[in-house]
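Quick one, tokens below. Sequence please?
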């Protein structure tokens, strides 16, 4: 039977017809194109690159951006899109998040006219792929410590350093790379094949297996001055991109949670133990399902409110921190509870639950760990920074 969503509190009545239409388009794409292949992709440790052109055609990349071939969706529509993609797999949503929020957004916001014209239409259609290099081997939660440097040499910049854990790294035609310069931190567009630029994939992942994760190395890598993002001044510019991506993650996690909840609910009604009674007839089982649906419903309302604030230009990074932190933790807890309710079957990939659970471990860590977002919220409510 086709998936009809999880809507305990008539959440859909808060959505417009256009918003529901965007969600339906994404849902159909995931049902028809992702669901049939994702288990094998995960087994093989392969990102389904063959879906990129179709996702571009459907307007999934940079969907909440305006102009240059972008769909110009509202932030609610964009959030609903991310939710459906992540119901398919966190790797698919990660691809779209990186492409839109971490590559197209900085080019649109901090790029030159030439950079926008060169890259945005191609990234929007999926003809080109991008990645975002901020994390380094020694600097994850604290990117301000980064060692990667960019030195001006005439009309060129010379980059040295290493970035790691980079989603889409080896797929990317262009990398948005953050580096120290004499004037502070800056953003640079490093194109595939630039001299001194090499990429190697990270293997052995037990999470995000249907996603490409790479390390990028720069050894006297020379790029023209025209590839510096002229308006990206300071680490604030990099962090502003992360706020965009975290917003999508906050919605995406709901999709993974819903898939796990729905799977556990159906299973508990069907699975019989003790006197041929469904396990759903036991109070301990019902309590878990009640917890899940309550938390999913609260997460939906949180996402909707942050989305509305974002559409009004009132969403603060600390609001987005609450959304990302709460919804990802909620989704991970739902996945773990669902895994439990499925018993031994829960550990196989016959069911999507363990795949989501493993993915969500990454989602909890990337784009600011759960701890770091607690500190952002803590600073917002006390005025005292506690990062060090
Ligand atoms: C699958 C995947 C994809 C990724 N994609 C990208 C990408 O595309 N681009 C990119 O730039 N990066 C990417 N990352 C990197 C990601 O953003 C970092 O892993 C993340 O920022 C955490 O950094 P770290 O792993 O170095 O952990 P660390 O910073 O070493 O943290 C380890 C632990 O210490 C805790 N900790 C650290 N500092 C504090 C503190 N002050 N107070 C309390 N606790 C603290 C953390 O919360 C965490 O629990 C990706 C990571 C993964 C797993």
């Amino acid at each position: 039977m086709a998936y009809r969503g999880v809507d305990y509190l008539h959440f859909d009545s808060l959505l417009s017809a256009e918003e529901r239409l965007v969600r339906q388009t994404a849902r159909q794409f995931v049902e028809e194109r992702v669901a049939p292949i994702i288990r094998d992709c995960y087994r093989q440790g392969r990102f389904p690159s063959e879906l990129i052109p179709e996702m571009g055609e459907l307007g999934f990349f940079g969907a909440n951006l305006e102009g240059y071939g972008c769909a110009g969706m509202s932030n609610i529509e964009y959030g609903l899109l991310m939710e459906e993609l992540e119901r398919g797999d966190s790797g698919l949503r990660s691809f779209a998040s990186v492409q839109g929020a971490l590559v197209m957004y900085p080019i649109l916001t901090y790029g030159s006219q030439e950079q926008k014209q060169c890259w945005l239409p191609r990234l929007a259609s999926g003809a080109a792929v991008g990645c975002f290099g901020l994390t380094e081997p020694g600097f994850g939660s604290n990117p301000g410590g980064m060692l990667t440097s960019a030195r001006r040499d005439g009309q060129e910049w010379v980059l040295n350093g290493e970035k790691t854990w980079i989603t889409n790294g080896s797929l990317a035609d262009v990398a948005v790379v953050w580096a120290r310069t004499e004037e502070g931190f800056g953003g640079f567009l490093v194109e595939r094949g630039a001299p001194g630029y090499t990429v190697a994939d990270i293997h052995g992942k037990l999470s995000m297996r249907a996603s490409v994760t790479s390390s990028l190395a720069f050894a006297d890598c020379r790029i023209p001055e025209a590839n510096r993002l002229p308006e990206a001044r300071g680490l604030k510019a990099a962090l502003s991109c992360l706020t965009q991506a975290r917003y999508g993650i906050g919605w995406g996690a709901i999709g993974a949670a819903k898939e796990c909840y729905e799977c556990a609910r159906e299973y508990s009604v069907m699975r019989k133990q003790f006197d041929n009674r469904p396990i759903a007839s036991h109070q301990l089982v019902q309590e878990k399902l009640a917890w899940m649906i309550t938390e999913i419903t609260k997460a939906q309302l949180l996402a909707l409110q942050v989305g509305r604030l974002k559409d009004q230009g009132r969403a603060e990074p600390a609001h987005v921190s609450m959304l990302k932190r709460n919804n990802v933790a909620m989704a991970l807890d739902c996945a773990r509870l669902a895994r439990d309710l499925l018993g031994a079957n829960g550990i196989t990939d016959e069911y999507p639950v363990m795949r989501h659970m493993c993915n969500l471990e990454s989602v909890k860590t990337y784009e600011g760990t759960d701890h770091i977002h607690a500190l952002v919220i803590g600073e917002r409510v006390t005025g005292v920074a506690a990062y060090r």
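DSSP finds eleven helices and ten strands in the chain. The beta strands are 130-133, 149-153, 156-167, 174-181, 184-191, 197-201, 213-224, 228-233, 272-273, 277-278.
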